[in-house]
Amino acid sequence: MIEIQQGKQPIAVVGAGTMGAGIAQVIANAGHEVILYDAQDGAVERAVDGISVSLKKRVDRGRITEADRTSILSRITHAGSLQDVAPAPLVVEAVAEDLTIKLELLSALETVCSGETVFATNTSSLSVTELASVLRDPTRLVGLHFFNPAPAMKLVEVVSGRATAEEIAQQIGFLAGSWGKHCVHTKSTPGFIVNRVARPFYAEALRLLQEQVVDPATLDAIMRECGGYKMGPLELMDLIGHDINYAVTRSIYNAYYQDSRFKPSLLQKDLIDAGYLGRKSGRGFYDYSKHAIPEKPRELGPQEHPGRVTVKGHLGVASALRVLISKAGLEVAQEEGEGSLEFDGITLAMTDGRTATERSAAENNKELVLFDLALDYTTSKRIALTRADQSRQGSLEQAAGLFQAIGKSVSTIDDAPGMVVMRTVCMLANEGADAVNQGVCDVKAVDTAMRFGTGYPIGPLGWADRIGIRYVADTLRNLQRSYAEDRYRISPLLRRKSYSGLDFYT
Question: What is the pLDDT of residues 389-419, one digit of tens each?
């Protein structure tokens, strides 16, 4: 068991790059003494200078005092050699994400440290099981995946390799929690939780672009203002860097033996080949040059509002629309049905993973318009619409008039299975369910990881409960039928829950 008391036992951090410096700051900020070591001359000094600047910004913002800043910096000690980390009961390695370098370091650490020392590796992609294999005692290595920037990001993934002692993983999770982090426990599998579950967020957006369903600015606006995400997937990929995002996708794709769920995008590869890496190169999906004009989402202009709307059946997760329509002063009637809105000769329904064209043919309804999923139909600023090929162009304008009447901006997209938000959320939930089904982590860990590791507005499994597991499963079935691809196969756990009627949090 590892027991570390503030002010009595130091924690060592090996590697003083961006991540190592950030981790050292987190630990020192929590009141621990930190021994910081890097084999490169001047690296520790540069790290401490960077920490000092970071803390000064916090002082300037009134978050800490100057005395706090001085105290935190005083707790960071420069180690002159690797042997100097030996007194620490916990050593966090944060060197380059290179298997050979990490294996050599861990082997050296085991030589200079005591047999009771616990080692934590800050890896984002390497196998903790494989890293532990170099140690004589692999039970004392645990993954401790911080996110960049470590002082600001609230999530830490505690990763157990096959040999990691459960007690050590639990103790390290408790310790990281005392540093102000939300900790989730995961097995050492490719991508852990966040990098695995997040793949559909990027993949579905890239596919929609490749199929010319929607332009970049409109897609991102739909995901932000309808889906509630802080950033759209395309602007986020531009921020991360397409070379990095693509490399992570390829790594996970290959690690899972080319599972089609993680298949990289040719569109993203084309951007990389062109040198369009995102913000850092000045061009990605968007132009970041000095005189670039920001792209605006496409939306319909003002349309005539309907006078009377009939609600047929129950609208499910979109039930708030009935209240909003009534509050807007429109006459509302209620009839039995399958869950739709009808007015002025058109039918308006939430997407279920089928194209509007397919659904129009199946339901023998030529004037069909579909709307996308929203995080909260009451507060969302935007809604996305699409129409069946059989429908008149004017049906979109009519539907837009209804949503404008309740205060929404309206963007239209080409007819695609599952539209934008719905297909993305269902795929995120499906991947999260599969991680749980394979014993990688539990339900709560999926949602905590995605909320605090990526800033999602709600965990994907909690969102699936809100939509209804059966509706999510049906949407995925329709997506798989539309594309005839294994990529959209339903997780066995999600399928099972759809039949049982139980939620993930039941």
Answer: 999 989 999 999 999 999 999 999 999 999 9
Any domain includes 429: no
Write the pLDDT tens digit of every residue in 241-295.
Answer: 999 999 999 999 999 999 999 999 999 999 999 999 999 999 999 999 999 999 9
The pLDDT > 70 percentage for the chain reads 98
Q: Can 260 be counted among the known catalytic residues?
A: no
Respond yes or no on whether the N-terminal peptide bond of residue 216 is cis (omega within 30° of 0): no
Tell me whether residue 374 is in a domain.
yes
Question: Of 29, 122, 124, 498, which residue is the catalytic one?
Answer: 124
CATH number of residue 115's parent domain: 3.40.50.720
Range(s) of the domain holding residue 313: 308-412
Residue 443 lies in a domain: no
- DSSP-derived secondary structure for 231-243: S-HHHHHHHH-HH
Residue 145 annotated as catalytic: yes
Q: Which of 33, 93, 157, 225 is catalytic?
A: 157
Short-list 103, 105, 110, CA closest to 129: 103
Decide if 340 is catalytic. Answer: no
Annotated active-site residue in 188, 195, 340, 365: 195
